Amino acid sequence: MKDRAARLHPSVILCYYLCISLYTVFVMHPVLQAVGFVLAAVNLLYFRGRQALRTVLAALLLAPAGALFNMLFNHLGISILFYLWDNPVTQEALLYGLCAGLMMGGILLWSCLFGLFFQADKLLFLLKRAAPSLSVLLCLSFRLVPDLRRKSRRMKEGRLGLFGPQQGGPLRRFRAGAENLSALTTRALEDGADTAASMTARGYGLPGRTAFPQYRFTGADAAALAVTAACLAGAALPVALGRTTVEFYPVWDFTISIETFVLFVLFCSLPLLLTAKEYWSARLRGALPTH
Amino acid sequence: MELLSVDKLSFTYAGQDRAAIKDLSFTVEEGDFVLLCGPSGGGKSTLLKLLKPSLTPEGTRTGSVRYGGVPLDQLPRRQEAAQIGFVLQDPDSQLCADTVWQELCFQAESLGMPPDRMGVRMAETADFFGLEDKLHRGTADLSGGEKQLLSLAAVMASGPRVLLLDEPTSQLDPVAAGEFLTALRRLHEELGLTILLSEHRLEEAYGLCDKVLYLKEGRQGLYLPPAQATAEFLEKEPAFSVCLPAAARLYGALGGTGEIPLSVRQGRAAMRKLWNGPQPPVSHPTPPEPDEEALTCKDVWFRYERQGRDVLRGVSLRLFRGQITALLGGNGAGKSTLGAVLCGVKKPYRGKIRSKGRTVLLPQDPKSLFFKATLWENLLLCGSGEEARQLAQQLALTPLLDRHPYDLSGGQQQKAALAMALLRRPDMLVLDEPTKGLDGMAKQEFAQRLKDLADSGMSILLISHDVEFCAELSCRCLMLFDGKIVFDGRGAALFADNRFYTTAAARMLRGILPGAVTRADVLRAWGARHEE
Q1: Cβ–Cβ below 8 Å for B340 and A157
Q2: Distance from the A212 Cα atom to the nearest Cα atom in chain B, whole angstroms
Q3: Secondary structure tally for chain B: helices H, strands E
Q4: Cβ distance of A194 and B367 shorter than 8 Å
Q5: What is the helix (H) or strand (E) element at residue B115, kind and residue range?
Q6: I need a labelling partner for B469 at 20 to 30 A (CA). Which of A47, B2, B147, B201 fits?
Q7: Bridge-partner residues for B29, per DSSP?
Q8: Which chain B residues have a beta carbon less than 8 Å from that of A197?
Q9: DSSP helix/strand/coil, B201
């Protein structure tokens, strides 16, 4: 049930991610950034579990890091806290830094969440229509990386079985590593020729490539897309109209309208709300799977 | 109806002066199953690639090939891709997708099949090949046999009329090879598919085919149904007849007249008639027991993952100098792992291994030993120039010293890897599946080489699925099952007693000539009987 969001059409997932990322980047409002960060953290913790705690804490560290960085290099602002090597360190710079750090942390968390729902398969599916050759290339790369690792391990084991444990200092080990790398490249090229032959034999390169209809765009997907668009509009419009403003320099000041706040909270909670909706409608129907 | 017709076909690879194929002429009717056989380097692979335009190598071609009456080079590319399927030898490198279902629909997508038809096509292909429950698995997680079946399914998904297979089972173990050939048989019988199969393992494939096409040094030797072809082989090509099914060879050697049996079942019937009643059991001489130990292994336990299952559970064994020991067992029994552990490549978490002298491991994939660009440089990595030259001469590798190791054939690569291992002057040599992809004649040569090495005092551990090969070596056998050694003794005793895991000769003569394991045993008993 938790993967309801993952079962959306890939274009919807991608759209949501792009919308929320763009909004986070462009609307540099302290309250919105803070709320956005918290909700992103809640989403990640819910969908990924306790493992996500590390990521959240790491993202949280970006805020003071940003503050520190900004304080050292940006000297605009009125309220000076202290002087550092003849440069004023201001409160406004601190606040902007914190805000910018929170933004980066937020983007990090949204990206992790995106990675949970949008796997390699889905990227390939979206690309298959748009750029068929790119999608095949990506497909091959996904196969290649673990494949090369296995081949490299076999070469290391081959070397170990033939020569015994590596003798000699770092120079010898470096030489052995370089030899392995060169041999691995040759091997990869050789096997790649075979793969190319197999693909050509099956008609790769002919014009008019189609894609297996793995994901169908359903009504639910259309509805999700519509809700996303509405939330984005609702949260962005007041900002554009000037009902939610923020200013950092020379004085720190911001306003926020209630619509912006509510719609933004709604926007960030969409994955949770979607999952909750499915859970409750299944439960009310008595159709919840037993585990 | 003639599907493929080849007329005076000759082909020379670009940059070479000797023709790979000379004057081949034959026709393949629709629904025929043609078995392509012959010594290595005879042109089988080249012929198959010439029948598939997108895989045809660079070179000069004379003569004609017609597909359904149309010259092959005039066939539109789309039709050629859809109607002529090709399965290559290496299970790993011919797969191009991440997951099983993506591999299945690769061809349909490439050919522009309408998306609403793809679902049904995939469904029926997956069903025929039993892939329904494996659809979402990664291709990397499949075994070798499963990968080859997947490649076959992927090629069949678009419904070709001709299937060309270039030694598809050479990298597979006997069980997986059997399953693959069974799938081919089903395709042939249930769909009437036209199949051209190039094989070394003739024991099973021989009984499936309608015609045998024999190529030797690029020339057409014969093109006959298997029963007649066997008679010709036994008469005119004794060197090649080593590769024939055991039933046919034995029948020929015992001077049988009449219909030559091709399978074990037919062989049993024929043998009963020839021997006329049960015979006294065959005795096997027991060779002297060697005493000098080369390696002791005591209570070794090994697993790959900390929370995984144990692959080796308390294995204890002793290996001796001057002795060839075969390590047998089913797929996944842990033979390769045990070999790696004995050489120190992998470390057991419990137990001790003590070896006197140097141990060298020859891995399953000889390519993983080639670190340099020419064979000569690879040999120099392992020993001095003088020794390398001598060894290359012994193994007939001297003309190949300048070539890149990947340009050599499978058998030549095997020899090259062996040369590298021998140059290290090991006291114990562990060989992991060295007979994979070798034809019958190359195996005989290899067996002799191993015997020579053992005679010179080296201890040899042979990890193999090849029951026939191990029986011919008549060596000590260890059988690994469920992580433990369940048998340690003479191979003859093991094979004479087993029902499934034994040689074709033993299966044929069970109850007729007890204790017979190899062809030599049978011939000896026959000779002894006819002296009375």
Answers
A1: yes
A2: 6
A3: 19, 19
A4: no
A5: helix B115-128
A6: B147
A7: B2
A8: 55, 88, 94
A9: coil
Q: What are phi and psi of B290, to 5 degrees?
A: -75, 155
The B residues from 363 to 422 touching A (CB cutoff 8 Å) are 363, 365, 367-373, 382, 406, 420-421
Q: What percent of chain B has pLDDT over 70?
A: 100
Sign of the four-CA dihedral B456, B461, B465, B468: positive
The whole-number average pLDDT for the span A86-90 is 80
ipTM (interface predicted TM): 0.85
pLDDT at B423 over 90: yes
Q: What percent of chain A has pLDDT over 70?
A: 99
pLDDT score at A242: 79
Q: Contacts for A223-229 with beta carbons within 8 Å, 24 or more apart?
A: A224/A8, A224/A12, A224/A16, A224/A270, A224/A274, A225/A11, A225/A12, A225/A15, A227/A270, A228/A12, A228/A15, A228/A16, A228/A19, A228/A267, A228/A270, A229/A19
Distance from CA of A131 to the nearest CA of B (A): 13
User: pTM for the full model?
Assistant: 0.85
The reported pLDDT for the residue numbered B192 is 93
Which residue among B85, B118, B360 places its CB closest to the CB of A162? B360
Collect all residues with Cβ–Cβ distance below 8 Å to B291 and sequence separation of at least 6. Answer: B320
Contact B345 A160 (CB under 8 A): yes
Cα dist from B367 to A152, A218, B15, whole Å: 12, 50, 25
Q: What Å distances lie between residue A132 and A214, A227, B70, CA to CA?
A: 15, 30, 32
Cα B471 from Cα A177, distance rounded (Å): 41
pLDDT computed for residue A291 by the predictor: 65
Average pLDDT of the residues in B222-245: 88
Residues in chain A, total? 291
Residue in A139, A158, A211 nearest the CB of B98: A139
Choosing among B72, B79, B345, B358, which should be mutated to test the A contact, i.e. which has the most A CBs within 10 A? B345
Mutation site for B-interface testing, chosen from A162, A166, A182, A187 by largest number of B Cβ within 10 Å: A162
What is the pLDDT at residue B379?
A: 93
Contact A202 B154 (CB under 8 A): yes
